[in-house]
Design a protein that fits this description.
75 residues; 434 Repressor (Amino-terminal Domain); 5 helices
């Protein structure tokens, strides 16, 4: 379940930046198919990759996870 909400939160932040999955993956030096599977909630990723993704959004980890918790509350 946490993977699903992590992925939805990634998608929200990426779409807020108006950037494609492919371009975002290139920006953070991550394989596009791997990143797509993260957004789809199909990956249980490492803390290193979590940090890489969140840094790519330019937000603190705390803000990212606060957004994720808010999304969980809405569903």
């Amino acid at each position: 379940m946490v993977q699903k909400y992590f992925g939805l939160t990634c998608k929200k932040f990426r779409e807020d930046k108006n950037i494609s999955q492919e371009n975002f993956a290139l920006l953070i030096d991550m394989d596009r198919t791997y990143y797509a599977s993260v957004e789809a909630g199909k990956r249980n990723i490492s803390i290193q990759n979590i940090k890489k993704i969140v840094d790519g959004f330019g937000v603190p980890l705390s803000a990212f996870f606060e957004t994720m918790e808010n999304m969980k509350g809405k569903n």
